[in-house]
Amino acid sequence: MIGIAGGQAKCDWLVDELGFDAAIDYKAQNVRQELRAQASNRVDVFFDNVGGEILDAVLTRLARGARIVICGGVSQYNAEQVRGPANYLALIAARGSMTGMVIFDYADRFPQATAELAGWLQQGRLISREQIVEGGVGAFPETLLSLFAGENTGKLVLAL
Amino acid sequence: MSTGRLEGKVAIITGAAGGIGTTPDRLERPRMNSINHQVRLTARPSGLPKPTDWELTTEPVPVPAAGEFVVAISHLSIDPAMRGWMNAGASYIEPVQTGAVMRAGAIGRVTASEHPGYASGDHVYGAFGVQEFARSDGAGAA
Questions:
Q1: Looking at domain B10-136, does it have CATH number 3.90.1150.10?
Q2: What's residue A43's pLDDT?
Q3: CA gap B106, B71 in Å, rounded
Q4: In chain B, what are the domain boundaries?
Q5: pLDDT for B80-119, tens place per residue?
Q6: Which among A78, A102, A158 is the nearest to B78, CB-wise?
Q7: Which residues, given as ranges, of chain A have pLDDT below 50?
Q8: Which domains does chain A possess?
Q9: DSSP class of residue B40?
Q10: Is the model's pLDDT at B14 over the cut of 80?
Q11: B132, A137: Cβ pair inside 8 Å?
């Protein structure tokens, strides 16, 4: 399992604390080259929350039958013209698929998930990091913007 | 990158959602705070949201009607997906309307309840919005 993040500190956290096999620093490294080196058997599943250049890089390294899950695309949220994946034709050769995922489709199972996740947290099997901003509702606009500047280092929470 | 805070930009909204039918003399005051501060979306952004796309408003803390409860929000979830909710057009969830309190997942404690499933002091979560107090019928809350 390989994580992609911006900056050495986030990449170290992925490997040292969360147990990823490797991490790629997209701000300092060439993602396509690093995927070639770190995922020599290509990519079976890509869980995507960023889109843009990262998605295009992953598309060039798909294994046969690869699945791409589109959960978000933060690189495109503020773009006036959304940039599509230029390398989507790679799905043909890979017999790959790209599927959208919306968590609200599973709302009837939230209680089950809450109980299981809480248990895993208590057992240390799940590691979560929160970044809590103290600021009240008036700090909402600037706190939201920090998400688009790569500034946050965990689940972002605004305390009232 | 700083947008500045919304201090000093306060509009009084009366008779708006959450405050319908409430007047100060009818408000219960279970907490010291009787004012609800809210962040409303005033314009649909192009590109990064600007300070002028938001407005800080105040209204009286809502009072629950039958089948409702009021929650004092302690923490808001701040998510990249919020940016998409600010756009017009069909998506997986209704856009936040301009003039409405911005949607946000939140946790807090019930301060008043006319709902059989919730009691004062209960910890709850739900899409309560960017505000200090929310009135809910329990839909999507737990």
A1: no
A2: 98
A3: 10
A4: 10-136
A5: 999 999 999 989 999 999 999 999 999 999 999 999 999 9
A6: A158
A7: none
A8: 2-104 (3.40.50.720), 107-159 (no CATH)
A9: E
A10: no
A11: yes
Partners of B4 on chain A (C-beta within 8 Å) are 142
Beta strands in A61-147 (DSSP E): 62-70, 97-100, 130-134
Q: Evaluate whether B56 touches B39 at the Cβ level (below 8 Å).
A: yes
Euclidean distance between CA atoms A68 and A91, whole angstroms = 10
Which of B36, B31, B30 is closest to B60 using CA atoms?
B36
Chain B residues inside the 8 Å CB shell of A141: 3, 5-6, 39, 49, 51, 53-54
Query: What is the C-alpha separation between A61 and A44, in angstroms, rounded?
Result: 9
Q: H or E element: which one contains A35?
A: helix A31-38
Show the DSSP H helices in A86-157 as ranges.
90-94, 110-123, 140-146
Find residue B45's DSSP bridge partners: none
Distance CA B105, CA B100 (A): 15
- Spatial distance between the Cα atoms of B132 and B111, rounded to a whole number of angstroms: 12
CB B28 within 8 A of CB B63: yes
**Helix A31-38, helix A52-59: angle, nearest 10:** 40
Token code pair at residue B51: 């300070």
Which pair of structure tokens corresponds to residue A152? 């946050």
Distances (CA, A) of A92 to A66, A88, A89, B53: 11, 8, 6, 42
